Amino acid sequence: MTNEIRTVLIKLSGEALARDGEKYSTQVLESIASQISKLLEKNLKIALVCGGGNLFRGRDLVDSHLAISRATADYIGMLATLQNALVLRDDFESKGIPTRVLSAISVPQLCEPYIPNRGKRHMEKGRVVIFAAGLGVPFFTTDTTAVERSLEIGADLLVLAKHGVNGLYTADPKHDPSAEKIHQTSCTEILEKNFKVADGSAIALAKDNNLPMKIVAVEDIENILDENTGSYVEPH
Ligand code: UDP
């Protein structure tokens, strides 16, 4: 598997950036930047999709007292992902990692618009590309965005980097000591057994389009090419 991998898209959940009640943890940012640097040194092309859950999720407002539609709430969620992308960009750049943000919602004062070929070109030049603002449409999530962007830029692997768990388990290892790690699975098995890996629509899209995935801990991003790291998801 590892020999063919040249382009990797890493999906970070917004919560992966947060710790101890803080929206952003300097330690986590330090760790992510240092691991991304190591992957770039291996000549991998790196793209990122970051969620917004540390700041805002559209569904959080649905049953609130505010007269706000689900669509508007989701647009606010997309803006939260843009905020995270800008934080990551400045953090990476300050550490010497050239980084560009391409946003599905145009904010020309802040970043470039989403243009797939431009993203590919940035990666060819060794820059990290962060795809922000999800797909730019409500009723979706950044899991689905991560699969769609992976397909569009021709990524060889989508890495789902998780906070607090280093792969897929038979049950939640935080609550069930008998939970066992599943080293290899498939999109079909994830859908059939309803494993909580990513949205069902994201998994279905990966399956339909033959995109392999890997589930790893945020701390293991630098080891994504190691076969013993995380859980591998076959694209069928
Ligand atoms: N969102 C959306 N369309 C997209 C991507 C995201 O509407 O294509 C909104 C949605 O409200 C979502 C929020 O942005 O709840 C933040 O994304 P997500 O929940 O995927 O973040 P994560 O859980 O990965 O931190």
Summary of the model, kept short:
By secondary structure, this protein is an alpha/beta fold. It is 33% helix and 19% strand.
Descriptive report:
This protein has 236 residues and is an alpha/beta fold. It has six helices and eleven strands. It has a nine-stranded mixed β-sheet with strand order 4-3-5-2-1-6-10-11-9, with helices on both faces. Strands 7-8 form a two-stranded antiparallel sheet. It binds uridine-5'-diphosphate. Uridine-5'-diphosphate (UDP) binds next to helix 2 and helix 4.
Structural class: alpha/beta
Helices and strands, in order, run as EHEHEEHEHEEEEHHEE
CA-based gyration radius? 17 Å
Q: What is the typical, i.e. mean, pLDDT?
A: 96
**Unreliable segments of 5+ consecutive residues:** none
First-last Cα distance: 16 Å
Number of strands: 11
Hetero ligands: uridine-5'-diphosphate
For the largest beta sheet, what order do the strands appear in spatially?
4-3-5-2-1-6-10-11-9
Protein topology:
Blueprint: E1 7-12, H1 26-41, E2 45-50, H2 70-94, E3 99-103, E4 112-113, H3 116-124, E5 128-132, H4 142-153, E6 157-162, E7 168-169, E8 181-182, E9 184-186, H5 187-193, H6 200-208, E10 213-217, E11 231-234
Parallel strand pairs: 1-2, 1-6, 2-5, 3-4, 3-5, 6-10, 9-11
Antiparallel strand pairs: 7-8, 10-11
Helix pairs in contact: 4-6, 5-6
The protein binds uridine-5'-diphosphate (UDP).
Quickly list its features.
236 residues; binds uridine-5'-diphosphate; alpha/beta; two-stranded antiparallel sheet; nine-stranded mixed β-sheet; 6 helices
